[in-house]
Amino acid sequence: xxxxxxxxxxxxxxxxxxxxxxxxxxxxxxxxxxxxxxxxxxxxxxxxxxxxxxxxxxxxxxxxxxxxxxxxxxxxxxxxxxxxxxxxxxxxxxxxxxxxxxxxxxxxxxxxxxxxxxxxxxxxxxxxxxxxxxxxxxxxxxxxxxxxxxxxxxxxxxxxxxxxxxxxxxxxxxxxxxxxxxxxxxxxxxxxxxxxxxxxxxxxxxxxxxxxxxxxxxxxxxxxxxxxxxxxxxxxxxxxxxxxxxxxxxxxxxxxxxxxxxxxxxxxxxxxxxxxxxxxxxxxxxxxxxxxxxxxxxxxxxxxxxxxxxxxxxxxxxxxxxxxxxxxxxxxxxxxxxxxxx
Length: 342
Description:
By secondary structure, this protein is of the alpha/beta class.
């Protein structure tokens, strides 16, 4: 009988987005010092790609009222001064005003290396997130790509509601492929393929990314972003790996999701009413568990796995509750006999 081996890439690029997407769903303001500490520690653990903040309106998302300070202090951090030049720092710029803010910050020497703009294949979901129609937003995104490139930033185009929409229901995978091509045509440098509400079953993840790589066969420009609303996160990571995707992002403890509409005891705009009755069930693929899983699979990540588990334990203290990671509870799989049981 011939040996059957699961086929997947043996080297990946991982990005962590805890400080932005992870903390945006928290209903208490995360101290600026804590945000910077988490970012520094992730860099020391080997991360070269971090999403740090959101340059959108602070009145709607007060979690990011410290966006400028976080960016400036991280750029100036003595703790990571020998590594920061190797790290690509990203910020979300959902509208043109926030793009312009990022451009000015870049000109001043402390702005992001990469900005992130977002479209949804569902018109309703897109309008809720951006406040514009899709037709209007494509024009904004085209201008944003030129503005970003003029100051040495790259533009990531996020395509969302690929596998379904929490407002409209089912969506067509082919539409997301079309949106990906359109983003690249107007100047996007890479694409984040996002399951923002946990609608993607693994078979459809494999189908979609196979379609994407058939049409645009460069895995370096495709990034997988999964939520775990229904618990399918790591299954979807494996499905994407098998399709040939090599770039993934996640959050420590699997935190994150729709921007909070209630922060520090005060109702705020966020992106409006939560999509789910229980807002605590949302979240992203858990950094700790994904890194441990990939390590066990023999996939090279370039990360210090033990340090990431330590950071995850501290993030639980920062947010004040037990998070999703099973690996920080149970640790890595033992590689030698355990004397206490002999």
